[in-house]
């Protein structure tokens, strides 16, 4: 049993479900942000993805601006911005604008993956050699633009200059864990789709952490998928959307978020089932008590400072209900 419940936060990819328009998807995510603010979740983050029919979060800072205008106090941010896709000055300006609009509410989570397939990555980056290896240099440049270190002749991010927006590094491997440790930044691990290196990355981060102006001690966010419902049967039914999502990604089938199904066995081969269930093995589905126990075990195993929850639930109302049940069992309200 966890003596003190740690914060829970929300990751959202602004999913576009079958029979929904992009406009409706954005409005559904806005309603989710408003709901989880009411439920007392700590943060609401959006992830940058491109060329994905079922995800509407490509223009991440634009969506965040809309979310900020329709919420009051919950922290909002990127989970994350894929920095090698952008000029650091542009990101400093975008998030400087967000911070100016919504003071003390903005987080800047950064990743080095493209958030898309290789073909789309080359369109975004215009450089076949830009594989993310210069991510540390780009991070230094971004931090410079957000600092007050510039002299009168420096290029300045306006807005952005001097705001020192909190930065968090995201990753699914040990690379960003090592870099976050060296820079003294929080580290968020993507267990919701790539759990294999979770424990190793967390260990590396803790062992190598160096205090910084932003952070004095290691701070780890673990991201997982979770679904909560009144019954286990309902939760498992809702979770078939998540299973289908990963199945179609694995097949290279770029489709909208599917409706849940009562018969997954007719959709996949046994080897696909094994592969996908291993990939999402950190997912927690069930009743409030099952979800609570699962979260407590995860925290005990990782010593995480915060858990971020993504939810691949097709029906927007069921998604909000899931977060509400989790907030109640976790004592957030």
UniProtKB/TrEMBL annotation:
Parts forming coiled coils: none
Entry-linked InterPro entries: Bact_Lucif_Oxidored, CmoO-like, Luciferase-like_dom, Luciferase-like_sf
Gene3D superfamilies referenced in this protein's UniProt entry, alphabetically: Luciferase-like domain (3.20.20.30)
GO molecular function terms noted in the UniProt entry: oxidoreductase activity, acting on paired donors, with incorporation or reduction of molecular oxygen
Domain Luciferase-like per the UniProt entry, residue ranges: 24-297
GO cellular component: cytosol
SUPFAM superfamilies documented for this protein: Bacterial luciferase-like (SSF51679)
UniProt family annotation: To bacterial alkanal monooxygenase alpha and beta chains.
Protein name as it appears in the record: Luciferase-like monooxygenase
